[in-house]
């Protein structure tokens, strides 16, 4: 079968970058019109924080679109998703995928087979152990993928992943 690539939503990414630019411009305006020390500090904090966020979002957007590094890649054997680091989820290790909701955000919960789940917990660092434990309490799965900002609907993606899971 062919490889399926899923990217972040183009419009959401552009709106995020535009919002950061507007907040930087607001910070510049506050600096220009400052009357006291609070305005000076608020202006610089706005410029630095939203400037950094805007650059990070722009870098992520350009990396994904120009260098063809999608957020999710589905192959016959595994699901590859990119966060700070790239993670590989082998379909042979997964029992099922489910859509879960936490607040307004949707996630694809990765339900590993019991032996794999136990092994992942043992192999995790202290930070990884805490993160997996927190995920287990919040959405009843050790790992999850945020799908609120991708170009595909959560239910469609979940169905596609479960179909690939049945083939392995």
Notes on the protein architecture:
The chain is an alpha+beta fold. It has helices at residues 10-32, 37-66, 114-123, 126-139, 154-167; strands at 4-6, 72-74, 78-82, 86-90, 94-102, 105-112, 143-146. It has 2 domains: 4-66; 79-167, no CATH class. Helices cover 54% and strands 22% of the residues. The strands form 2 sheets. A 4-stranded antiparallel β-sheet has the order 1-2-3-4, with no helix packed on it. It has a 3-stranded antiparallel β-sheet with strand order 5-6-7, with helices on both faces. It is elongated.
| Integer count of domains | 2
Radius of gyration, whole Å: 20 Å
- The 3D shape can be described as elongated
Secondary structure: number of strands: 7
Number of helices: 5
User: Biggest sheet, open or closed, and with what strands and sense?
Assistant: 4 strands, antiparallel
Uncertain runs: none
- Return the string of H and E elements: EHHEEEEEHHEH
Strand order of the largest sheet: 1-2-3-4
Approximately how much beta-strand content do the residues carry?
Answer: 15-25%
Average pLDDT metric:
87
Percent of residues in helices comes to 40-55%
Short summary of the structure?
This protein has helices at residues 10-32, 37-66, 114-123, 126-139, 154-167; strands at 4-6, 72-74, 78-82, 86-90, 94-102, 105-112, 143-146. The protein has 168 residues and is of the alpha+beta class. The chain folds into 2 domains: 4-66; 79-167, no CATH class.
Which labels suit this protein?
four-stranded antiparallel β-sheet, 168 residues, single chain, three-stranded antiparallel β-sheet, elongated, 7 strands
């Amino acid at each position: 079968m062919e490889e399926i690539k899923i990217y972040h939503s183009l419009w959401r990414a552009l709106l995020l970058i535009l919002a950061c630019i507007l907040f930087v411009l607001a910070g510049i305006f506050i600096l220009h019109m400052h009357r006291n020390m609070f305005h000076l500090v608020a202006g610089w904090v706005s410029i630095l924080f939203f400037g950094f966020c805007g650059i990070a979002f722009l870098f992520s957007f350009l990396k994904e679109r120009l260098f063809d590094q999608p957020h999710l890649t589905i192959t016959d054997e595994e699901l590859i998703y990119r966060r700070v680091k790239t993670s590989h989820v082998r379909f042979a290790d997964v029992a099922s995928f489910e859509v879960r909701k936490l607040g307004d955000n949707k996630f694809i919960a990765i339900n590993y087979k019991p032996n794999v789940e136990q092994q992942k917990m043992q192999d995790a660092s202290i930070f990884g152990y805490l993160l997996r434990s927190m995920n287990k309490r919040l959405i009843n799965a050790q790992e999850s993928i945020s799908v609120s900002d991708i170009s595909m609907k959560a239910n469609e993606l979940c169905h596609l992943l479960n179909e690939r899971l049945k083939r392995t």
